Amino acid sequence: MNFVALKMLTGDRIKYLGIVIGLTFASLLITQQLSIFVGLMTRTYSVITNISDPDIWVMDEQVQNIDDVRPISDDRLYRVRGVPGVAWAVPLFKGQIRAKLPDGQYQICTILGLDDQSLVGGPPQLLYGARIADLRMADAVFIDEPNAREKLGNVQTGDILELNDHRARIVGLCKMKQAFVTMPLIYTTYSRARDWVPGERNELSFVLVKAKPGVAPADLAQQIRAQTGLGAYTSEAFAQKTLWYYIAHTGIPINFGTTVLLGFIVGVAIAGQTFYQFAHDNMRYFGTLKAMGASNFMLIRMILLQAALAGTLGYGIGIGCTCLFKLVVGGLLTPESQRVMIIYWQILAIGAGSVMFIVLASSLLALIKVVRLEPAIVFK
Fold first, then answer.
1. Could you report the per-residue pLDDT of 342-359, keeping only the tens digit for each?
2. Hey, is 136 helix, strand or coil?
3. Which of 24, 137, 283, 322 has the lowest CB atom count within 10 Å?
4. CA-to-CA distance for 253 and 167, rounded, in angstroms?
5. Strands 185-189 and 106-114, how do they pair?
6. What is the Cβ-side half-sphere exposure of residue 108, based on CA atoms within 13 angstroms?
7. Cβ of 93: how many Cβ atoms within 10 Å?
8. Are 5 and 310 spatial neighbours (Cβ–Cβ below 8 Å)?
9. Hey, is 305 helix, strand or coil?
């Protein structure tokens, strides 16, 4: 009977292709849009994940996300260091600076100033033999390699760059997870960043804290808040805070959610209507089988097999199209600094669940009609 069911499904090639195409489109749209959305959202807190050394980030209590820099006074650093359980605490400067390109154009960049002594917070991957200690050289900076190539005139190690009318020498290129706003990222020392960027009365952006062995970072963060009046979050909590800020205060989730919902609705409309029409057109065959003694359970199994085959094909082709889109459009045709698609297994699972729901919803009406079918229909 399984062979008969598959023969019935593929016999009407127009409807068969219509069902598969509808499910393919739904699978493609859902997984592709979710991959772009997830990639964009992970970029919102990439500065935090790129800096893996500290356990806790300390800042002004009104800060809402990593890009919401509200400088605090330098004396707060010493107050944080005095909290029991703190192994070390170092300053971090984060701001924006203007770079003058070789052709005379200007490019706004993000600059991170690392503690002069420890250089905690440096890039996760240095390229071409560069060392973090090179940052202590005169006027030294690191620049992220994709943006150095794409937005800063393809500058290389050893080149001189003008930053806010200050001379900066590139001592290394690096790679890290790109930020939400794709500006070039420049690393230098804390004191140098403060001198180069026109500042306010307070210039300390963040304090990076490491907990002593045996001290829970979450408990230490709470203690820092209580003793200093500052905002203090573990790295994971600060990343989540930043993520939910962008979800709650931007239109990105609504835009992508609408597209995903549209793909789901279109999949239901195309695949559902076509599958129901397919089942309706084959009622005389189901009636014949029922008159020959086939049970309702057997007919239901045949319809579910047909739906499962169409769903598997549609989902598989849709996922293949998503991966092809990521490879070609999201990879080869997109500058490296702007590649955002990330395909997690959870996205594939959501796509599979969505296609399964569409298939089950599409076959439900057909199942009801087959169960209620009178075998005498074959004689009419």
1. 999 999 999 999 888 888
2. helix
3. 137
4. 42
5. parallel
6. 4
7. 26
8. no
9. helix
DSSP-derived 3-state class of residue 89: strand
Classify 144 as helix, strand or coil.
strand
Q: Could you tell me if 128 and 172 are in contact, meaning their C-beta atoms sit under 8 angstroms apart?
A: yes
CB atoms within 10 A of CB 361: 15
Q: CB neighbours (10 Å) of residue 98?
A: 14
The Cβ-side half-sphere exposure at 340, using a 13 Å CA radius, reads 19
- Three-state SS across 219-261? HHHHHHHHHHCCEEEEHHHHHHHHHHHHHHHCCHHHHHHHHHH
How far from 73 is each of 88, 130, 300, CA to CA, in Å? 18, 33, 72
Distance CA 173, CA 137 (A): 15
Q: Give the Cα separation of 233 and 378 in Å (integer).
A: 72
pTM assigned to the model: 0.86
Q: Model confidence over 148-197: pLDDT tens digits?
A: 999 998 999 999 999 998 999 999 999 999 988 889 999 999 999 999 99
